[in-house]
Amino acid sequence: MIRFLTSFFFLVSLALFFSVYISPEYFPYVGLATLTIPLLLVINGFLFIALVLAKRKLALLPLIALVIGWKFVGVTFQLRTQPEVENGLSVLSYNVHMFSYNKNGDLKNSTSKNLIQWLKENPADIKCFQEFYQDPTTPSRNSIKQLGKETGYHHFYQVIQGNPKSSTFGMAIFSKYPIINEGIVLDSRSTNGIIFADIKVEKDTIRIYNAHLESMNIPSAELSDFDGIKENYRQTLRKLKRGQVARASQLEILMEHMENSPYANILVGDFNDVPYSYTYFTLRNIMNNGFEKAGKGFGFTYNKVLFFLRIDNVFFDNALEILDFKTHSEVDYSDHYPVSAVFSLNKPIKKTKAEFEE
């Protein structure tokens, strides 16, 4: 029985460890199984210790599994101290959940007021927002004016839904530095999209991508107890499958666009995918992840029942050097926590693809 269980978990672990490189477009449900990777790491760790204590050669199998799967430990948890960083290019990403306005778009509740105030006071050089709400007809809801013109930021706002003359919903990039070019990578006209802005930072230019990939639309409130899980698990699985396939397609569009970028890229946003996914590892193969390079703890970014999800990220090219990364879990005004990163400006940013590969 011990030999069977050890061999079984070894084979399952290897299959799932390598499945993150398989597109959900071909195997839709593989991405759901990878959610068990942290559990498999724990099981293999337990088996390894138990078999070593029992002086069984079989301990080699969970050891091999742990060695191969060690990269998943780094994407899950980081143990480091975070130094105070004063100088550098700071970038903030935040899914603001339409600023928590009520159905009438009122800014009367304290959550909305506190959120806007926090964003006004946040000193980040570049701020990227998903689920951004804008209403130019009412001063208290004119988010672009409050967070842009009144605080000295240039901006690029892409409307996804709504009437520009009244209230709209979309994505936004705000910058203290001049925006010399901007554009749309993906316009789904639903709730998601990808935009970019080329920003002149001193003598260099960088490209900022703000992404909001296909939402999972998980009814988290309905999964808070056993009865809720029992009633909604089939619907949830269908949504997870549909979302993973859609994100794989969106990722192809994004990757092609980034490959043609003439500048160093910083990619931020709400990816709606966990670190054990095809989306995450495809990006991780060509870019660095802010949490892995400079983060601390688990870095969970979802502020709902499924609190153990890290779906908001900052990726960046090798041409850039990261100094700090933070998940602002104390800022609980939205259903996401904001994340921020600070990059060094002490060395010139390489611009061409050939230079990136050197």
From TrEMBL:
Assigned keywords, A-Z: DNA damage, DNA repair, Endonuclease, Hydrolase, Magnesium, Membrane, Metal-binding, Nuclease, Transmembrane, Transmembrane helix
Taxonomy, superkingdom: Bacteria
Stretches that traverse the bilayer: 29-53, 60-79
Gene3D superfamilies, per the entry: Endonuclease/exonuclease/phosphatase
Pfam family, one: Exo_endo_phos
GO molecular function, a single term: hydrolase activity
Xref: InterPro entries: Endo/exonu/phosph_ase_sf, Endo/exonuclease/phosphatase, TDP2-like
PANTHER family xrefs: TRAF AND TNF RECEPTOR-ASSOCIATED PROTEIN, TYROSYL-DNA PHOSPHODIESTERASE 2
Protein name (record): Endonuclease/exonuclease/phosphatase family protein
Organism this protein belongs to: Aquiflexum gelatinilyticum
